[in-house]
Specification:
alpha/beta
């Protein structure tokens, strides 16, 4: 499933000002759990077509990661209508991500 590459420049448009639910995945290429999470997020996105997935490479978007106090990877932020609802740190079961969307 497709996702949007999140950057400091587009974060406000794609996440903060977006009317709807967004999962923001802070990840890095070297992160094994991040690689495990990617297909799970694709699956969640396929099952929830109204959900937007934004992937932020924490190594290249250091300022954005710092803005949200990202200290561990993967970290998933759940937004609804621009409001941060939940932060999930580490790889979790699919049900935890789905519950965070409710």
């Amino acid at each position: 499933m497709s996702h949007i590459i999140g950057t400091k420049q587009n974060f406000k448009t794609e996440v903060s000002n977006y009317k709807g639910k967004v999962l923001v995945d802070f990840w890095a290429e070297w992160c094994g759990p991040c690689k495990m999470l990617s297909p799970l997020l694709d699956e969640i996105s396929t099952e929830n077509p109204d959900l937007k997935i934004v992937k932020v490479d924490a190594d290249t978007e250091i300022d954005l990661a710092n803005d949200y106090n990202i200290n561990s990877l993967p970290t998933v932020l759940v937004f609804d209508n621009g409001q941060l609802l939940k932060t999930i740190v580490g790889f979790r079961q699919k049900s935890e991500y789905l519950n965070a969307l409710k």
